[in-house]
Amino acid sequence: MPVNYPRYSRAEYESMPEWKLDFLLTEYGLPVGGSLEYKRNFAAGAFLWEVFKMPVNYPRYSRAEYESMPEWKLDFLLTEYGLPVGGSLEYKRNFAAGAFLWSPSG
């Protein structure tokens, strides 16, 4: 993971070519799936502090809990942390586990 956050404006994310978005997201270990519009919104949400939210408590679910979590709960959890809620249920479960678990074994 790079030491510094990228310093692009919202307008730069909205016009960024797909190859650059893919490189940027991969460099920070973030998912690169979805449409170009989704990637632009995701990158802006991930790196622009104006939309970043952080609740007081960090979620403490296990990998097994993420893998069986209902979609409404995943949507609520991801929204609460300012993360994207698009994609399939399996994608959301994997994304939440990747975002909140400290180790791959969870």
What are the salient characteristics of this protein?
0% strand, mainly alpha, 2 domains, 6 helices, 106 residues, globular, single chain
Can you put this structure into words, describing what you see?
Residues 5-50, 58-103 form the DUF7722 domain. It holds the Pfam family DUF7722. This protein is globular. α5 packs across α6. The protein has helices at 10-15, 18-27, 36-47, 63-68, 71-80, 89-100. It has 2 domains: 1-52, no CATH class; 53-106, no CATH class. The protein contains 6 helices and no strands. Helices cover 53% and strands 0% of the residues. The longest helix has 12 residues, at 36-47. The chain has 106 residues and is mostly helical.
How would the blueprint of this fold be written?
Elements: H1 10-15, H2 18-27, H3 36-47, H4 63-68, H5 71-80, H6 89-100
Helix pairs in contact: 2-3, 5-6
Structure summarized in a few sentences:
This is DUF7722 domain-containing protein. With about 110 residues, the protein is mainly alpha-helical.
